[in-house]
Amino acid sequence: MIRLSGLLLLACLLEAQPKDPYIGSQACRACHPAQTQSFFRNAHTKAERGCESCHGPGRAHVSAGGKKDLIVAFSALSSRKALDNCLTCHGKDWSRNNIRHSAHTQADVVCSNCHSVHQAATPKHLLAKPQKDLCYSCHPNVQSQFSMPFKHRVNEGAVQCADCHNPHGAPAPTWRMGQRPRLQQHAQANEQSCVQCHADKRGPFLFEHAALRVDGCGSCHAPHGSANPRLLNRPVVFTLCLECHNGAPGFGRAGQGIPTQSASHNMADPRYQNCTTCHVKIHGSNADARFLR
Amino acid sequence: MRRLLLCLLGAAAVSAQPAFAQPTVAPTPQRAGDANGEDLAGYNIVNSLETGYRFRSVDGNLGKYRSDVNFGNGLRVLGSYLTINSKKPGSGKLFDELVLSTQGLGNDPYQFSSLRVQKDKLYCFDSVWRWMDYVNPALPIANGQHGIDTTRQLQDHDLVLLPQSRFRFLLGYSRNQQDGPAFSTLQFPDGRGDEFTFLDNVRRTRNEYRLGTEFELLKTRFHILHGWEYFKDDTRAPLFSPGPGANPNDTTTLTRFRRDEPTHGQAPYWRIGLHNEALKTFTFDGRFTHTSGQRRFVVDELAIGTGRFGAAQNRQLFAGGNARRPVTTGNLTLSWFPLERLTLTNHTALYNTRMEGEGSYGEFANGVAGLSLLNFQYLGIRTFANLTDANLKLTRWIGLYSGYHFSERRVASSDFSDADPPARLDRAEQTNRLHSGLLGLRLQPLKPLRLSLDGELGRADRPFYTTSEKNYHTLAARAQWKTKRASLLGRYQTNYNLNSNSLFVHSARNRVASLDATFNPKPFLTLEAGYGHTHIETVTGLAYFSLGELIENDRSFYRSRLRQVRLGVQLQMARRADLYFGYHRIQDAARLGRSLMDQAFPLTYQTPLARFSVQITKKLRWNLGWQHYSYREERLAWQDYRAHTGYTSLAWSF
Q1: pTM of the model
Q2: What distance in Å separates residue B176's CA from the closest CA in chain A?
Q3: Angle at Cα B406 formed by Cα B405 and Cα B408, nearest 5°?
Q4: CA gap B486, B476 in Å, rounded
Q5: How far apart are CA B315 and CA B310, in angstroms?
Q6: Looking at beta carbons, which residues of chain A come within 8 Å of B632?
Q7: Is residue B431 scored above 80 in pLDDT?
Q8: Which candidate, B105, B148, B153, B107, places its Cα nearest to that of B129?
């Protein structure tokens, strides 16, 4: 009853004011205390028009006693409209550069699916849950990969999904055929994200291992996690190498096949079954074309 | 008032949600102190600091445990959290917001801290610091002698000046440092010699400086940034007396060895972005980057020992030169909204890289000049990609998605060497095109239910590698039921790639299926369960030498049957105590192969955990946790381990 009287009084006062569609954040407090009480902690508190910066002009909404369709309610917006609203301010950031073409946007996953402005679990990026839990909630198979014996330390908190991925939409990859993988962050603006940390593998080298530059690190490694040491795609090294170095015609730089191993290598002898024992600089070498040093 | 109380209770319940997907037992997700904080001098402060003791007991292979888990004994700051916010926006003197969180400081192998400080309209500073201790004790499943025990320190600092104005200034600094001992190998005295392990002292540093601006002009937002990256690798193998070689029957010896191989270089880069949302029916994003990178290198190596027949051997080699890799990219995304429910996007990408370098190589064997040669290498990759996608929302509950993607890649290389006179220059070039089509259906027949089906079909004409994608397809289905109290997610995906010609075959198939559920039957109880399996099967043609004979018709098989089970129960008792039980198990159930080329790696890895956290006073919590790691593989049982780890800690707020 008290609330109703307050609203009526507020509505009468508003009638006497000039018709500015904006009413100010103070008016929101009466009906939305939970959202406004701790809002001083929120980065959006800096927005010029307070609540109305995101929710649009609120005078008509208040005058109508809180009618839902007279205010921008994100829960009722289509995914595209929700994205449009956020990009009004956040479009300028470099990380949002390709957001309209992002695989997330194409799948109707937009800002409000991951970010919670009013009930954020992380004050820094206003994520609805801690980052890894948020990503796992839709990608549970990735969670199992990060629980493998060899893995990047995401569950341990040392590495985050966003270190390698740009969930807002990365440009086409500069490796493989430029179509996949999607949403992969580019290191130093245009290189595969792995070299951001593994700087020694970046090169340039006098003798490049073309596989890295042409098809990317994923040619040999499973980046999330693996049962195999060094996150390799195979449990032993030699099959990984021989699957490409088999001389099959039509492949390689000149279409004559990727060179087979030397005749001096006897694969029946265990000493030849771990190629990287001798080919130590397999990511690229400055001294030896066969990556021996 | 009732509504206010309900809202506050709701917010408290949300903040009390357990941090699921938390396979490491510590730090404790529950914090000490009042979530609403305390007011002091115009600021609101929330803080919690958790300090405790971790213990471990390992039965089995300690090296493998350290490689996989690596938590040790000792005291540490398991976690901390601090936020300071000015109560009135913009009223803080030096800052309006400060957020600091840390994890594992002092003794954990994975340490992390994150800081944000900002003053409205003036500055915003973000900083992340990470420290990782990684051990890989040359595990024999790699058949390797390449052990590593290095620490890596990563730092990223970014400062934005005038963050809310039309002109923003960006400054940044990143540092990546890797130090520590490692073992590598060398073959001596030549390709028919033995392999010897030697000690490497790893010292790598990467520094990156950034300077840029963001501004708005003609309703278009611009981002311009220039960065400078400096890299130094001063890894060296000091004078060392290696032990016996890897092959006991080989009579070769290496008595002294030393190698210096410094590599220094820089990679300055530019990035320019633009974004325009001025029109309601049309938007565009542009992006241009250029990175020019170069590395100067020297290799100086000395090896002394005896050859196969006992004669003294010494080898000294020297290599030096320069390598460069300029990379340029251009991207343009056009988005058109001809109808309220229809979005068309087109992304065009152009990527060009040139990798080239020249170097000299000289070798002395037993004091006599041997090999001396000059090398020049060039590898160029130019990729053009055009990706067009359409998204149509037919009704509120049904949507369609389709796309056509095309890309063309040209790989060119030149290889000059004067090793075998006359000097030789080999050139090669090939072009590869990929066409792919995508189709998707999105359904939301009920508000809590979302269904999606996706498919992709791709055809490449001339893949570079035998394992690259050629004729591939992907099918994915997904169903999610999500309400405030329960969520159920089912997912299935299959990928198939066939890359074959008349003489060779590579076929790879993987299938992933999973079902995950979370249920909150009561505000104090949360249940979580998940099951997933991943089946991978590949077959690839092989050619190799065995006993001097070329084997051309063999194939490698690889099978993996991963099964994953995940369970979690979170119970809150009397609003003061939290109890969590979790269990995670991964099993590769593939059968061991019958031949060398028939590969599988069956293993079981499980980690049950339990954690108890009780609020002693309003500002103090006591936590206790235990986590067991059990690793068992079928191929090499001596690598198995069982480890009990745990911790006890106090979390307090002050």
Answers
A1: 0.91
A2: 7
A3: 150
A4: 23
A5: 15
A6: none
A7: yes
A8: B153
